[in-house]
Amino acid sequence: MRKLRTIVAAATACVLGLAAAGCGSGSSSSSTASGSTITYWASNQGTSLDNDKEVLTPLLDEFTKQTGVKVNLEVIGWNDLQTRIQTAITSGQGPDVLNIGNTWGVSLQATGGLMEFGDSEMKAIGGSDRFVQAALETGGAPGTTPTSVPLYGLAYGLYYNKAMFQQAGLTPPASWEEMVDDAKKLTNPATGVYGMTLAAGSYTENAHFAFINAAQNGAELFDSSGKPTFTQDGVVNGVSRYLDLMQTDKVVNPSDAQFTDGSKSIAAFANKKAAMIINQNNANATLISNGMSEDEWGVVPLPAPQNAASQVASHVAGINIAIMKSTKNKDAALQFVKFMTSQSTQEALGKPFSSLPVLKDAKATFTTNAEELKTFTDIYNNRSKPLPLVPNEDQFESTVGKAMNNMFASIATGSNLTPDQVRNQLNTAQTSITS
Amino acid sequence: MSSQSIKGGNATSAARHRRSRRRGWWWFPYLIVLPAVILEIAIHIIPMLTGIWMSFVKLTKFYIRRWNEAPFAGLSNYRLVLNVDTAQGQAFAHSFLITCAYTVLVVSFSWILGMAAAVALQKTFRGRGIWRTLFLVPYALPMYAGVITWNFMFQRDTGAINHLLVDQLHLYSDRPFWLLGSRAFVSVVVVAIWKMWPFAFLMLMAGLQSIPSDVYEASAIDGASPWRQWRSITLPMLSPVNVVLFLVMFLWVFNDFNTPFVLFGRATPPAGDLISFHIYNASFLNWDFGLGAAMSVLLLAFLLVVTLVYLVILRNRRDLYA
């Protein structure tokens, strides 16, 4: 019996030992870059995962040619990326370099799983002063060492269908009120055509617009101590204003409450079921793949109300690039980040990924339409504000975004929400935020 | 010394030899079982114990990398989940009740449909094989393909369901939403029944094969109606199958994650917020793995209690009628 116990104990120790070895294998150490192989998790920026691979592969080959470092590429869809990163951080088993949504920058920094870009690391990737300042700020909480740097810049703009506006004798709106008036004139439910289309079932999109509308009212979502302030008047009014596009103004098809991602609203705009869409500049590739040509649409900044406290038209949207703290190939990873954020790579990827450059002096290349380039560059550089740079930003997106999903669903199914009911929903979201 | 005693001596010695050989191989059965034990420990026991440990710590995003350093939270995760005055407690209670209603409806309707189809196909007739195959299609289809097709069918403007109900049958004046609001519950129940009933059908069909046909013939001679035959012969003789079938379906349906995940995506409407998906959201969307683990432990405890009560009641009933 004693022997049996010994055998069982030995076997258990083996299992635990193997598990511990697995957990510990990600300990960091630097090595000579050339000849090493790194793993890169890219986010989905193109029209499909395969499209991303096709776009990135020649560039990665070029990087290998230059440095001798091989890159194993895996493109991960947005639905899976956050979970994959969480798992990688928990287990220490993950890629060397990865893309993250820049709004996750501070939340992921708080996990301690990403490598800090201190002075020497920043120097190794070419210095921090070459990045657009607002984009660089998304890499970490204020006053801390960032754990990610900007890779692709994105900004929201108001796309409008030129022909539909011309037929109705309208000009692009310069204020929220004008936008709503134009949208009303372009709405005809009998033909299934509406003034605007929204991804009203996407919690991330809804959270972004809660932020932008609140920011136009001069309201902050978190106070200086990092506590949520979702129930203050500026936030409630901002959220109500956005919901009213469907509820009171009736310029949005109630069916949009089923649109769980932006591609569906882009398709509605491309198919002329809506005259306007508020979307990030990466809509271009999808609009073209849905049969629209570039000269059919125009873009203006998302207008603020006439008496707005701020003319914010977008959050500083985009993708950051980070290095896992557990990497064994720090030198190679830094070289790769330098390569991906270099001017030539930024220019090469700007067009296929419809992204804005994150470098101060680089030119946007995502479209040949000079006016659109100018509009988005101006929005990104002058009218964008970073989402709250607090560790609980991710919880803001999930709780407020989901509350807005539910409110849009209620409106679509016939309910009429009062500002107090909106406040109650935001209060539930606020009290759901733990830690 | 007789030859018999020599033989006897040899036999005793042979038996002793066999016993000693057996004693020498005493470890062999343990060796055979060992891989299964190791896998059971690694795959089930360790993760389960880890989950229970997680429910007592504050495992948020700040500690997921150094999870062994997460501060002890005592019972606070449980208190938060069970306190219906908090947003988390209310959401958990709502999700639990929705899941109970979902389980009762899906298990009941799946069993009724499975039983009806199994009885209808019990007797041999031309084309029986085709019907059997047809009924098993939902079970054979890849789950994702099946549920995503339902998602397309439930779309408000372009879905087949509204085309049938509104455009063809004119049952509604306005197109209803099937994936939003309270109707989302109806949708997820319908999809789950569609997915589950072929399993009930398969099990009951197999059970019906074991009932001798002469029992039915004898009862028919005595003038028993088909309803009486089903109530007095089919149902009692299928009782061992039903015991297992109900238990398995209950556990599967209560823990169902895939149906709401594929049907609704990550933004589940409140009416379709089933508990497994609720726990997933608490853990992965809100990055609060301690809270998610506390919910999981409560779910485990509930399922264990229900299973035990179910088995004890059945055992007592069997003893009563034995």
Please give the count of helices of chain A. Answer: 17
Sketch the major β-sheet of chain A.
5 strands, mixed
The CATH topology of the largest domain in chain A turns out to be D-Maltodextrin-Binding Protein, domain 2
- The general outline of chain B is flat
Low-confidence region ranges of chain A: 1-31
Name the pair of protein chains with the most residues at their interface, and give those residue counts: A-B, 52 and 41 residues
The portion of residues forming beta strands of chain B comes to under 5%
Strand content of chain A: 5-15%
Keywords (chain A): Signal, Sugar transport, Transport
InterPro entries (chain A): Bact_solute-bd_prot1, SBP
Protein name (chain A): Multiple sugar transport system substrate-binding protein
Organism (chain A): Propionibacterium cyclohexanicum
Ordered list of secondary-structure elements with their pairings:
The complex is a heterodimer of chains A (435) and B (322).
Chain A: H1 2-24, E1 37-43, H2 49-67, E2 70-76, H3 78-91, E3 97-101, H4 105-111, H5 119-124, H6 133-136, E4 148-154, E5 156-161, H7 162-167, H8 176-186, E6 194-197, H9 203-216, H10 233-247, H11 262-270, E7 274-280, H12 283-289, E8 297-300, E9 314-315, E10 317-323, H13 330-340, H14 343-350, H15 370-382, E11 384-385, H16 393-412, H17 419-432
Parallel strand pairs in A: 1-2, 1-3, 6-7, 9-11
Antiparallel strand pairs in A: 3-10, 4-10, 5-7, 5-8
Helix pairs in contact in A: 9-10, 9-16, 10-16, 10-17, 11-12, 16-17
Chain B: H1 3-24, H2 28-54, H3 76-82, H4 87-120, H5 128-140, H6 143-153, H7 160-168, H8 183-209, H9 213-221, H10 226-237, H11 239-254, H12 258-264, H13 275-285, H14 289-321
Helix pairs in contact in B: 2-14, 3-4, 3-14, 4-8, 4-11, 5-8, 6-12, 8-11, 13-14
3D architecture notes:
The complex is a heterodimer of chains A (435) and B (322). Chain A folds into 2 domains: 28-154 and 316-385, D-Maltodextrin-Binding Protein, domain 2; 156-315 and 392-432, Periplasmic binding protein-like II (D-Maltodextrin-Binding Protein, domain 2, 3-Layer(aba) Sandwich). Chain A contains 17 helices and 11 strands. Chain A has helices spanning 2-24, 49-67, 78-91, 105-111, 119-124, 133-136, 162-167, 176-186, 203-216, 233-247, 262-270, 283-289, 330-340, 343-350, 370-382, 393-412, 419-432, and strands spanning 37-43, 70-76, 97-101, 148-154, 156-161, 194-197, 274-280, 297-300, 314-315, 317-323, 384-385. In chain A, the strands form 3 sheets. A 5-stranded mixed β-sheet of chain A has the order 2-1-3-10-4. A 4-stranded mixed β-sheet of chain A has the order 6-7-5-8. In chain A, helix 2 links the parallel strand 1 (37-43) and strand 2 (70-76). In chain A, helix 9 crosses helix 10. In chain A, 52% of the residues are buried. With 322 residues, chain B is mainly α. Chain B folds into 2 domains: 3-54; 77-321, Orthogonal Bundle (MetI-like fold). The chains are: A alpha/beta (435), B mainly alpha (322). Chains A and B meet through helix 1, helix 3, helix 4, helix 16 and helix 17 of A and helix 2, helix 4 and helix 13 of B. Chain A: InterPro entries: Bact_solute-bd_prot1, SBP. Chain A: Keywords: Signal, Sugar transport, Transport. Chain A: Pfam families: SBP_bac_1 (PF01547).
